[in-house]
Design a protein that fits this description.
The chain has 413 residues and is α+β, with helices and mostly antiparallel strands. The protein has three domains: 7-90 and 97-120, Butyryl-Coa Dehydrogenase, subunit A, domain 1, CATH 1.10.540; 123-244, Beta Barrel (Butyryl-CoA Dehydrogenase, subunit A, domain 2), CATH 2.40.110.10; 248-389, Butyryl-CoA Dehydrogenase, subunit A, domain 3 (Up-down Bundle). The protein is built from 15 helices and nine strands. The protein has helices at 7-23, 28-33, 41-49, 69-82, 88-102, 105-117, 131-134, 246-281, 293-318, 323-344, 355-370, 373-383, 386-391, 397-401, 405-410; strands at residues 122-125, 155-158, 166-176, 183-190, 197-204, 210-214, 224-236, 283-284, 287-288. The strands form two sheets. Strands 1, 2, 3, 4, 5, 6 and 7 form a seven-stranded mixed sheet that branches. Helix 4 (69-82) packs antiparallel against helix 9 (293-318) and helix 5 packs antiparallel against helix 6. The longest helix is centred in the middle third of the chain and has 36 residues, at 246-281. The radius of gyration is 23 Å and the shape is globular. It starts with 6 loop residues before the first helix and ends with a helix. InterPro entries: Acyl-CoA_Oxase/DH_mid-dom_sf, AcylCo_DH-like_C, AcylCo_DH/oxidase_C, AcylCoA_DH/ox_N, AcylCoA_DH/ox_N_sf, AcylCoA_DH/oxidase_NM_dom_sf.
């Protein structure tokens, strides 16, 4: 695979890394996550206004840069390195592509320029608490069971009423940036049981009957919320009242997985770099900890794992169909690398306040939110038909139905 980047792509990475290095510090993340928004609003304005980060992958007609998933993945790799809490993932990676894919011309013209400018943040709210299932990453989302399936539970859409609007009932847990987003994209079940379908609806943050509660999250840099809707007015995303949004969610999920893979690689790489610097400086028995052969071997294994995940992420950025598998590899690399980082930092790594813990919690939190790894791989294998191919190697029916000697012995025959 040719992983060479253009001069413009390198410039995006360099500029963002320098800005985050100047804006960061030991107390920057704790201060940002304790704000009402869960991120630093001033820094977000600089990222949006100065660098155009939320509009990187949006068309120029909407005020975006007209770039691709690759540029957005490179930007998220840098935010992953810094564990930067921003609404970039929820707004630009999850919500904006769905608005672009499903929205009417009027909806796109009204919303996407504001997203590109950073003045409008958005969040995707799906019922059941399983964002990975809704995006088609860990299971088939076509049956709509995760959205309520026409029965009790999930989020139900009623209408249209006399005014042409819809009303939503239900709740969604673990909504990324759901407590602070200006706009919610809510996945709801519509049509009742006979005409079952899943659709997306636009809900303004100030809508009546909407209650949002910020939750305590494992990873503070990924603020999560519970969204409750009680007779809440909503607008259908798109013009086709009979359309099903699951295909658009799946397509958005592939691209999001590729971007998330790059972000996880940034997290793993930064944790590894910080660990290498620590073992170079930390001395034990009169010599640097990093000079011990056992430590060198562990670090070398981590380096190979991170670089393999990086290659997979870069490939997926160019071909989002490979996104789920790349995400699985990147999440696995991040989990192992951050766990080893805590171990190799010794006693100080186990203190709750140390930065090594932040990297570990980011890796663990991302797998809870977008995984787990084995389900990402299982679903990708099923989509590729690997289990069907393996079935051809099963024993013939006559042989398989004959009990083995071990089974007969165990049964007392």
């Amino acid at each position: 695979m040719d992983a060479a980047f253009t001069a413009e792509q390198h410039e995006i990475r360099r500029t963002l890394r320098e800005l985050l290095a100047r804006s960061g510090g030991p107390d920057a993340i704790p201060a940002a996550v304790r704000t009402a928004e869960g991120y630093d609003p001033a820094l977000w304005r600089r990222l949006a206004g100065g660098l155009g980060l939320p509009g990187l992958a949006l068309a120029e007609e909407y005020g975006g840069a007209g770039c691709t998933v690759t540029e957005l993945a490179l930007a998220c790799e840098e935010t992953g390195r810094a564990l930067l809490p921003t609404p970039l993932l929820a707004t630009a990676v999850l919500a904006a592509p769905l608005i672009d894919a499903l929205g009417t011309p009027d909806q796109r013209a009204a919303l996407l320029p504001r997203i590109a400018a950073g003045t409008l943040t958005a969040a995707l709210a799906v019922p059941g608490g399983s964002l990975a299932t809704a995006l088609g990453l860990t299971g088939d989302n076509a049956d709509g069971a995760w959205a309520g399936g026409g029965r009790a539970g999930g989020i139900q859409a009623r209408g249209p009423g006399e005014d042409g609007g819809r009303r939503l009932y239900g709740e969604a847990d673990r909504v990324l940036d759901g407590h602070s987003a200006h706009l919610l994209l809510v996945a709801a079940h519509a049509g009742g049981y006979p005409r079952s379908r899943t659709q997306l609806f636009l809900v303004d943050a100030g809508a009546a009957g909407l209650a949002r509660t910020r939750l305590t999250a494992l990873d503070e840099t990924r603020p999560l919320a519970r969204v409750e809707l009680r007779d809440t007015p909503a607008e259908l995303l798109g013009a086709d009242a009979d359309a099903d949004a699951t295909a658009a969610l799946t397509a958005a999920g592939r691209a999001a997985a590729a971007i998330l893979a790059a972000e996880a690689v940034g997290t793993a790489a930064s944790a590894l770099e910080r660990t290498v610097e620590y073992v170079k400086a930390r001395e034990q028995f009169g010599r640097a900890v990093g000079s011990f052969q056992a430590v060198k071997h562990r670090l070398a294994d981590l380096y190979v794992r991170v670089e393999a995940a990086r290659s997979a992420a870069y490939h997926a950025a160019r071909d989002p169909e490979a996104g789920p598998l790349a995400l699985a590899q990147a999440l696995e690399a991040a989990g192992i690398t951050t766990g080893e980082a805590v171990q190799l930092h010794g006693g100080i790594g186990f203190t709750w306040e140390h930065e090594a813990h932040r990297y570990l919690k980011r890796a663990a939190g991302d797998e809870l939110l977008f995984g787990p790894v084995h389900r990402l791989r299982d679903h990708a294998a099923r989509r590729a038909g690997l289990f069907g191919a393996a079935a051809a190697f099963r024993q013939p029916a006559a042989t398989a139905s004959r009990p083995s000697a071990g089974l007969a012995y165990g049964a007392g025959v």
